[in-house]
Amino acid sequence: MPQSVIPYSCQTIDDSDIESVINVLKSNFLTQGPACAQFEEALKTVTGAEHAIAVSNGTAALHLACLAMGADSNFVGITSPITFAASANCLLYAGSEVVFCDVDPINGLMDLTSLADTVARIDSRGAIIPVNINGKCCDLPEINKIALEKGWQVLEDAAHSLGGSYADTTGKRYQSGSCSHSTASILSFHPVKHICTGEGGAVLTNDKSVAEHIRLLRSHGIHRPGLPEQPAWFYEQIELGWNYRLTEMQAALGVSQLKRLPQFITRRRQIAQRYYEELNKAPFDHVFSLPVDDPGHVYHLFAIQCKASTVRDDLHRFLKEKNIMTQIHYIPVYKHPYYERRFGKIRLPGAEAYFKGCLSIPIYPKMTEADQDRVIAALTTFCTQG
Length: 386
What we know:
This protein is of the alpha/beta class. It contains 13 helices and 14 strands.
């Protein structure tokens, strides 16, 4: 009898989550009710940001943040190629130009030297969109410094790092999503993320005008002045906006999930620590290396680096045959056919090196010790079979 499938990641839903959603279904509001506001308040508490705007998904969050930061046809955004395509697509949605800078070949995070060189070549308004990968944050203080020297802004893609943190040169730590070194940050609540709402996302900011603009654009660009001399039903469309609202069911699930975020992160770190203890030695170190640990790492993914792409692909197939799922995070965005047609054949050495070896092995809060035993045993067999 085949063994059960171990996913590379999945959601963790319990009875309290189900009860929260059921309560909304029994209420008078399925959209535009109190649960969304409650979720936004909870996000502010968790991240330390002054404003939180919940939206339909992480891509919508990126799109609206770009627009609120002034993205248009005379705007350039620099981002990482090691990410999901939405980190670049959001700029194209706004009619802006996308430029990729290179990444560190070890951790996949934005390379500061490449970033500074790329920024220096551009004569335009713009923003840097650093992408936190696998649960580890970019060097946001230094990235923000580069942006400020250019008169640019920073939009932190924190889809992988809710609950994580980073440090400045003095060792002071900051919460991911706090917007301490960015105009705005975005989150995603896809099922494989730290908390899930089915689909969903949020924009975080400490800038009141940015927050107000995003709230307007989130709901068709419609404004309800609420002036005494106007009828209660009156509204007006101020701008061309979108329907990027989050439902009340999703928001209620998010509120419930956020209560267990510390528990989820603790479990992810426990699983990661066991991987470090078991795999950071022979025979594994001859086949792959492990991610560099960090106090602020929250292990959205556990991405090993195989010594060669052929080894990576062989290992992916081997584990799949044993019903152990893995994934590649990510194919460099510039390699996708759409981007090659638009920008030509781009190749960045750090991104190429990271991509050729990266493989995300299973990690998620409800992963059992027995599940992890199976993963480690399978990796042992692969690494010792010659």
